[in-house]
Amino acid sequence: MLRYELISCHDCGVLHQYRPVRPREKARCVRCGSVLYRGIHSDPNRMAAITLGAIVTFLIAQFFPIVELQIGGYSTSATLLGSIRVLWHEQMQLVAAVVFLFTMLLPAVELGALFYVTMALHAGRRPPGFDHLLRAIGAARRWGMTEVLMIGILITIVKMTSLAQVLLQPGLFAFGALTLMLAIVVSFDPKHLWNIGEHLPGPGGPRASQREFQYKAVPGGAHLEACHSCGLVASVPRRARHQRCERCGAALHRRRPDSVGRTWAFLLAATILYIPAMLLPVMYTDSLFGKEDDTIISGVMLFWNSGSQALAIIIFVASIVVPVLKLAALSLLALTAQTRSRWRPQQRTVLYRIVEFVGRWSMLDIFVITLTVALVRFQTLAVITAGPGALAFCAVVVLTMLASMQFDPRLIWDATDSNGEKHA
After folding, report:
1. Could you give the CA distance from residue 385 to residue 155 in angstroms, rounded to a whole number?
2. How many of the other CB atoms lie within 10 Å of CB of 38?
């Protein structure tokens, strides 16, 4: 298997020759305009220092109270882990597991693996499990939602000011700092780390004669496959099946298998669950004034009528508009890919990028519910519990994200290629 210093566009599949760019510069695809890679300071020592700071901040954010409420002689406070525990004990185990996964476990995996790898690279060696760790970083990064959680915390605080006295706690400031630090950590592309580690000795590392990548002319008729995990582009036999990347071991495929069919399956499930997500209560309030059921729509109206129009618009867009537009956009992309439409491929690629970017923000309402349920537990005064609508809406968000991940955007461009194959 021959290797070439080539970069494959994630969105349309066009191959480009890799050329270094300076920090803060971007290399874009010549066909669809997608960002291929960004110039960064690839110093492992700097990466390790920033990641260590993020780990310390992460621990403070997770285990210190975020906010405290005081009313009528009662007081309650909530940590993120405590909020998840409350959901778990209220028979919302699936929602609690999803929140734990997106806000605690996956960010911890990303930071821990990145720190371990960068420290080893700083020492001039490839650590054991190097390839698996970098693949784990990429997977965890797609699902981690610290920035969405931070906005959810701020909305919860504003919401609670009308109910009780709100006291800000260290966890809130730690989450704010963590959000900023993770924005820097995300700029550390695992593909750059693979390139650094490629030239270093270590367990499972390549032989010295094979480490260097060279710019080579692609032989005529070569069949090239790009690894979506590490970015390596390699020549493989045309009819070979079940090929794996020479560098990281990930499965190689020209197009994601059954991409359109799987996308339709997730979209159908999400569409079915969207109806109960909007109609069923997401929260139950039991107070001195009686019992009240709150749906997502009634929550938006409550914010609007209480004078918090900005927050009402944010929740309306994130929880109602975005899921509907995602379902419509992904349906359009799947249908046009299946019919091999040539209609506006560049605009459809941009639409796909937008869908991928905004998908996670629909979890905003779930995070608000998680914190609210943990905070409003004033015994006889008021208690808020989660409702079945929260479970349905959480499932909708996860299913739409899975649908966008299953869709292979390179299918958009196959109809425009003279040698395109049908993969739908």
Report:
1. 18
2. 14
Q: How many CB atoms neighbour CB 347 within 10 A? A: 11
Distance CA 153, CA 92 (A): 20
Angstrom CA distances, 364 to 29, 87, 317, stand at 32, 16, 10
Residue partners of 337: CB distance under 8 A and separation at least 6: 259, 260, 407, 408, 411, 412, 414, 424
pTM of the model: 0.86
Nearest CA-CA partner of 256 in 230, 234, 225: 225
pLDDT tens digits along 322-335: 899 999 999 999 99
Cα of 109 vs its chain's centroid, Å: 13
In the block, tokens 């695992």 appear at: 190
β-sheet bridge partners, residue 27: 37
Summarize pLDDT for 262-294 with one digit per residue, the tens: 999 999 999 999 999 999 999 988 876 667 888
Q: How far is CA 96 from CA 99, 100, 196, 289, 402, in A?
A: 5, 6, 38, 29, 19
Question: Which residue, among 305, 335, 394, 297, has the nearest Cα to 101 in the 3D structure?
Answer: 394
Q: Which domains does the chain have, with CATH numbers?
A: 1-39+207-246 (no CATH), 44-201 (1.20.140), 257-424 (1.20.140)
